[in-house]
Write the structure tokens for this entry.
Amino acid sequence: MTILGISCYYHDSCAALIHDGRVVAAAQEERFNRDKYSPVFPIQAVNYCLQEAGLTIYDVDEITFYEKMYLKFERTVLSHLAGYPFTLRNFLDTMPLWLKDRLTVSATIEDELSIKRPVRYVKHHLSHAASGFLLSPFERAAILTVDGVGEYACAAYGSGSGTAIELRKEMHYPHSLGLLYSIVTAYLGFRVFSGEGKVMALAEYGEPSFLDEFRKIVHARSDGSFELDTSYFSFNRGDRMHNRRFEKLFGSPRPPGEELNDRHRNIAASLQRLTEIVLIDMVRHVARESGEKNLCLAGGVFLNVTANSRIREESDFQEIFIQPAAGDAGAALGAALYLYHSVLGNPRMPSLKSCALGASFSDRAIQVLLRNRGVRFRAMESDELVAEAADRLAAKQIVGWFRGRMEFGPRALGNRSILAHPGDPEMKDRLNLIIKHREAFRPFGASVLREHMAEFFEQDWSSPFMLFIARVHAAKIDAIPAVVHVNGSSRIQTVTSEENGIYYDLIEAFRERTGLPMLLNTSFNDSEPIVHTPEEALRCFEDTDMDCLVIGGYLVEQ
Amino acid sequence: MSARICNRCVLPEAPPDIRLDDAGMCNICHNFDEEQRCAEPDDRGLLETDFLKIIEKHRGKHEYDCLCMLSGGKDSTAALYYVKERYKLNPLVFTFNHGFVPDEHIASAQRTVEKLGVDFVYFQTNFMKDLFRKIVETKSKVVICPVCSLWYMLKTYEIAAQFDVPIIVSGWTKGQTTGSTRSVLSKCACDQNPDEFKAMTEATRRFMKEQVKTDPKYRDFPMTMEEVLRIAKKKYKSKAIVLSPHWFVPGGPDEYVPVIREQLGWEYTARSYPRQSTNCDLNFLASKLAMENYGYSVYHIEMSNMIRMGLVTREEALDLLEMDVDGEIFDDVLKKLNIEAQHQ
Ligand SMILES: [Fe+2]
Ligand SMILES: [Zn+2]
């Protein structure tokens, strides 16, 4: 049984392939066409997934399509939102595509892939729910999906048991946390879809002094449901999403690029706080109503690591699983999983332990590239490579680390990463300014050896996909300044020998040299999508001031 | 003649068409990089699904879905294998011999055909022999291969028309096309207009005009690939398009040689230039003359493309392109051409 899952025409289009009872491959189109959050039909990702499995499109039995609601009103709203205060290009380009209904989507798929297969449409929240539950380690669990940044508006909850998924309640547009977050992101002068993470980081520098104002526009109930007071928004204007009433409460919007002040920081902090409060209320309500011990989360809102961590600490659930590709990309996989398990009744597969579902490149291909580019390199055995890289990291060098299969979802987890010494107080500025060219207030995550976590953090749990923050022991903050956020916490990925192989070995080697069981880990890119091919890695390496590059079995120096 | 060689590809300095910059890199490589840099998100490379789009238009509508040109070498053997096993098409196989194809190549083609159980057309002719002799005798700078390919492509179209086949499948590698998606799909893809082909193309044009057109025996010989396409369309009423699966599937020989070895028991033939190819004996002489006249052969152009595409290293290419044969092979070819051996 081979199922191809597709999501597209909105943003971050993606293909995922289930074959022989497992997820063989999943990848976002942006990595191939290098257009961030590309919404086009994921033709390159589809070709990649099939090649990874050694199949052709003729081997595909079923195609699933992650369905969005194609309501005209929402389309208009979101095009405004996405365009403000930046260009409308992306959205005007895709607008006509949004008009596609099932018939034309089916025809497009048939045309692009040259095969006739029935296309199965899986509902929006079912896709999210399936992506969260069916790859979780739980036999049964409560499920909550909340649409993320700039997505179509809503939330749903229910539960899963075995291969069955039931959603009991849905909340509808415009009463959406994701939408609110995106509106305020735009109001604060950041780009919708990529700026939400910045707002979350900025929030830690402010005080939630606008919480009362937010309470005026968000009428939350104790069960986590809420209503947005639409009189503060103008969904029909072309240039913004908030209106004058909103500005009366919060002040004038920040033009992009203008210096950030305390008011901006406080608004961000208040929005973040409100988001957390609402989410925790929802989760508590879901806990009460479902009576389940475990919880699965999906939807773009759950890329908000601060909120995730509060949920983890403050809810009554024993364990929480979050789909690492929480947004639309993960929903393509979710749609395929839903068909495979919930509709066709195939038994569950092992839980998702690794996001490494993308392309890998042979040492031979890498060597051909390096030689033909006249790049000087050293071929090394794995243990030599680990030792050499650990030496360099300990000496505060910045190391590009390109090995194995590309990660699925927005995070780099040690296969397409830029690594650095977490104990160097200069490192954060160096990376933000020189390599990543991004705002100085944005923190970096850490990859931590699971068994050493408690030595540095108050929490002692797993976070394999870097979806949680942990509080650093007060006494340890000065030891790892490059990965501690202003609030004394770190965004962390826990690393184990079984699941992370050589990446684990590298951090262990670094620990032997420095006593620190962790590395600063940020995605391997400058401002483009995360690098996909060795060629892109080499270009990024050459264009930035990384000190060295580990690529496959080779070490390259600047 | 030992011109400087580009430090990225294997093309030698050959002004005005091929020029090296101060850093030792040629203009062809620079052009390639420039095109890569200017690539838009939507002008992607060819994908397998692009190939499927074409074949699905024709599948099952003719007795044969396609005509596969087979030399017995790795590239055409793999192309045929893909067509039959990966895409489940019903191919007719066509092998052309102008009298200089070694027996072991024909035998290799035959083994593949038998193994795959496909229909086979074998065509042998001495028609071009006088022409080849003329090339050598007149000391023309024309390169034999492009001239020969005019004739065998015309023959291929004729066969395609005869059997009403809609697609001609070649084993041309990624290095044998530099075209974009659109240009590849719109013509025969024998793009001989880039800079590195200019001098050879000009020599061909002159030779065709002065030596071929004037010879009654070759009055109908096509002058250019465009003319081949015209004749195919007008005379043979063939609308067949020429494609190679290699353009659409990622990777290169590293990926498909192990497959055909395992699945078809295919092996490299002993005698061919460049090494690990399966080209005719005439090709030794053709490449040697091209090296003398231009400093590089058509295989240097192909290998250079492969280097730029990251399919082979420069060292490997230089190694494969080295002509390490004794003079005997040239004497053999010249004897076959009824020319007194001038080589030792
Ligand atoms: Fe969604
Ligand atoms: Zn060159």
